[in-house]
């Protein structure tokens, strides 16, 4: 059996081997893991018990000393003795005190020395004898004892003159652990001191022996080493070590954690004492914790290796048995003779790959042929429906092709759905994605509406169109079904693509020849989105299609908008624009009238912009502005566009002009004209106010504004006159007087020259059109 020829056989062997190996590896791994965890837990528990036992041994000694020493210093005769002066003549009193002190120093308490100090009579007694307390150094030591916070405290300090250790091993210790009691214990007055001294070396012997992998020490609350196997370490401070800071931060009385000290990993075991706030710390190297797991690991590895060898043997011989029928089938399909080396056309193919390749080739040919036929039919259907909706087929051609393409003929009514995307604003899409989005929507519509209730959907220009069919339903139920289907389509598109779409629905028709008319009705219905807003379903038959061309326009709100722009009040201007557009759409029920009113607003804004001396757009750009605003389909988009493209830029320009430190001369003149147009303004008076020569002002104004001062003043007054004629009831005479004309005839002649009609005729025409 050759490897290149029978690839599947070796895959089968590998599969069985892996299948039998995985349980062995998993069981071995978790067995070793569990054993290691158990051993590690036992070792850590043992360390906790060791630290606890060490604490118990040491504190037993300290508490015994504390208890016996406290009973001794509380005695009344001792307190009285502190107030007496001991002289050589009072040898009996000294002998009694010395005897009592020696009785306290038993072997089991490790006491090395006891010192009794009388601060009042200036003497002290210890193992060495009776001395006077008259040395400055001794007085300093006594004051330090008196400054202890507690009247009974354990302190670590070096040997000194007050405390003299006995001879022997303890005498070699540099540090003693002293129990200092301020006498009397129940009074704030310090008459004397009693000090019991235990050599630190004696207490160290009570701790477990140090090994290569572990050690133990005792610390006070400030991190100073009290007990340590190395006597040279006693008295050192480790308060800045990270592991000590962590022990202080931990709230538990005992515990363990891992840390690294000098590039060595340790398991720290600690125990906090409630008796004297000492901290007992044990250091164990991490490798020590895993020493006992090594033998278990090797034993587990040996067992697993033996089981894996058995698995390999089972896989090899078992696969031969399972592969025998496959081998016969392979050699039959490939046409080779058993035992030869010519099986298969491709020597790199396995047995099943050869069989699969031959079958796939056959299936792919059939599949490709089927897809081509379906694609051609689908394309023909969409082409036919597109031409049908555009009205480019005759009635006879429509009936013939409709039946030939396999469309159903058992319907009674048809209606056309026209769907358009409301806006791409606040979506991740751009205009260039519109075609792709429409085809995606086309697919979603076909999934949302059952095939038996529609014809295939098509995309025409920027509109997705679907012909809906009614099969036996009443017209009322058909309308309800169309509304439900439209809402379902909107929900699916919003959920899948995050887009808002509106749908226009035509009236139901009974003839295919009316499909074009139905399509136009759907498009007409969509124009009413300007009033209805986003995600609307609009039935053509429910529209108010008033043909009277009478456009309503709220001039007062427009004037308030212009005043807000002049005041550079962005927030107020936005509110007035919103109110103005709402008023336009509420007063004009026909969307075409709304568009005319919006175009009028845009025109008035451009005219107002020029009156303010603002040039935001190129002269050839006005046509593009109208194209842009007519492409907007919702009132929200129109409002946003006007704010961003027109009003916002006007206010920005006016703000810069107003806030600029160095306004140019012509802008100042324009500002004066707009504020004082109803006064006797002359270029000479303005020149005096601005401290310039009139001729210089005239040349500067004409150069920058492309118009003379008098022409601009007349033009602005003419603009005001038109506003007063259409928005007020002032007479022509009153208007001429307010605008400082010499007489009404001069005003009438000037107005007729500019407008082609008299002021009275202008007012009559404007009032009639409104």
TrEMBL record:
One of its GO terms (molecular function) is sequence-specific DNA binding. Residues 345-372 form a coiled coil. Keywords: Coiled coil, DNA-binding, Membrane, Transcription, Transcription regulation, Transmembrane, Transmembrane helix. It comes from the Bacteria. InterPro entries: CdaR_GGDEF, Homeodomain-like_sf, HTH_AraC. The chain crosses the membrane at residues 12-32, 296-317. It holds the Pfam family GGDEF_2. Gene3D superfamilies: Homeodomain-like, PAS domain. Residues 667-765 form the HTH araC/xylS-type domain. SUPFAM superfamilies: Homeodomain-like. The keyword Membrane applies. This is AraC family transcriptional regulator.
């Amino acid at each position: 059996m050759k490897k290149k020829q029978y690839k599947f056989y070796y895959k089968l062997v590998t599969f069985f081997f892996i299948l039998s190996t995985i349980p062995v590896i998993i069981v071995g791994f978790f067995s070793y893991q569990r054993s290691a965890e158990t051993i590690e837990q036992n070792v850590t528990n043992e360390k906790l018990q060791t630290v606890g036992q060490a604490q118990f041994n040491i504190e037993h000694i300290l508490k015994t000393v504390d208890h016996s020493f406290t009973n001794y210093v509380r005695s009344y005769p001792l307190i009285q003795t502190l107030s007496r002066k001991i002289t050589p003549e009072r040898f009996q009193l000294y002998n009694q005190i010395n005897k009592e002190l020696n009785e306290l120093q038993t072997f089991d308490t490790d006491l090395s020395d006891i010192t009794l100090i009388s601060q009042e009579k200036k003497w002290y007694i210890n193992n060495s004898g009776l001395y006077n307390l008259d040395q400055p150094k001794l007085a300093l030591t006594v004051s330090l004892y008196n400054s202890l916070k507690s009247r009974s405290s354990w302190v670590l300090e070096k040997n000194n003159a007050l405390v003299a250790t006995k001879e022997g091993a303890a005498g070699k210790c540099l540090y003693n652990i002293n129990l200092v009691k301020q006498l009397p214990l129940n009074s704030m007055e310090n008459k004397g001191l009693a000090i019991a001294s235990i050599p630190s070396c004696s207490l160290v012997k009570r701790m477990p022996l140090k090994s290569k992998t572990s050690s133990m020490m005792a610390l006070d609350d400030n991190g100073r080493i009290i007990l340590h196997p190395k006597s040279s370490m006693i008295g050192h401070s480790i308060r800045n070590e990270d592991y000590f800071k962590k022990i202080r931060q931990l709230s538990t009385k005992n515990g363990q954690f891992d840390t690294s000290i000098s590039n060595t990993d340790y398991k720290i075991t600690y125990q906090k004492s409630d008796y004297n706030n000492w901290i007992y710390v044990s250091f164990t190297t991490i490798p020590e914790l895993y020493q006992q797991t090594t033998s278990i690991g090797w034993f587990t590895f040996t067992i697993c290796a033996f089981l894996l060898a058995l698995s390999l043997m089972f896989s090899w011989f078992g696969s031969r048995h399972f592969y025998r029928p496959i081998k016969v089938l392979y050699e039959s399909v490939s046409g080779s003779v058993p035992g030869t080396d010519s099986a298969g056309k491709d020597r790199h193919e396995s047995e099943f790959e050869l069989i699969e390749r031959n079958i796939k080739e056959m299936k792919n040919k059939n599949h490709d042929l089927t897809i081509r036929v379906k694609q051609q039919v689908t394309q023909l259907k969409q082409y036919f429906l597109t031409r049908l909706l555009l009205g480019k087929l005759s009635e006879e051609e429509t009936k013939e092709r409709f039946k030939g393409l396999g469309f159903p003929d058992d319907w009674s009514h048809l209606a056309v759905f026209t769907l358009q995307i409301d806006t791409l604003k606040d979506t991740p899409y751009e205009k260039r994605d519109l075609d792709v989005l429409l085809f995606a929507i086309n697919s979603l519509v076909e999934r949302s509406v059952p095939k038996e209730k529609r014809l295939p959907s098509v995309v025409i220009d920027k509109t997705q169109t679907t012909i809906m069919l009614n099969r036996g339903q009443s017209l009322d139920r058909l309308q309800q079904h169309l509304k439900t289907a439209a809402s379902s389509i909107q929900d699916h598109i919003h959920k899948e693509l995050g887009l808002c779409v509106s749908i226009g629905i035509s009236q139901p028709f009974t003839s295919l020849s009316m499909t074009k008319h139905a399509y136009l009705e759907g498009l007409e219905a969509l124009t009413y989105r300007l009033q209805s807003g986003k995600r609307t379903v609009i039935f053509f038959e429910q529209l108010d299609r008033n043909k009277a061309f009478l456009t309503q326009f709220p001039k007062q709100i427009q004037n308030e908008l212009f005043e807000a722009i002049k005041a550079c009040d962005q927030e107020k201007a936005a509110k007035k624009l919103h109110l103005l557009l709402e008023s336009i759409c509420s007063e004009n029920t026909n969307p075409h009238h709304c568009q005319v009113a919006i175009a009028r607003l845009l025109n008035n804004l451009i005219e107002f912009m020029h009156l303010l001396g603002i040039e935001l757009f190129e002269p050839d750009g006005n046509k593009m502005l109208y194209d842009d605003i007519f492409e907007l389909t919702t009132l929200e988009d129109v409002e946003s566009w006007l704010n961003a493209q027109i009003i916002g830029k006007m206010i920005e320009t006016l703000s810069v002009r107003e806030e600029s430190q160095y306004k140019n001369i012509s802008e100042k003149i324009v500002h004066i004209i707009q504020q004082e147009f109803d006064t006797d303004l002359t270029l000479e008076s303005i020149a005096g106010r601005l401290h310039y020569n009139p001729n210089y002002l005239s040349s500067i104004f004409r150069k920058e504004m492309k118009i003379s001062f008098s022409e601009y003043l007349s033009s602005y007054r003419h603009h005001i006159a038109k506003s007063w004629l259409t928005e007020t009831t002032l007479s022509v005479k009153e208007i001429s007087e307010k605008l400082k004309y010499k007489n009404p005839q001069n005003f009438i002649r000037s107005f007729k020259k500019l407008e082609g009609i008299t002021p009275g005729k202008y007012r009559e025409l404007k009032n009639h059109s409104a």
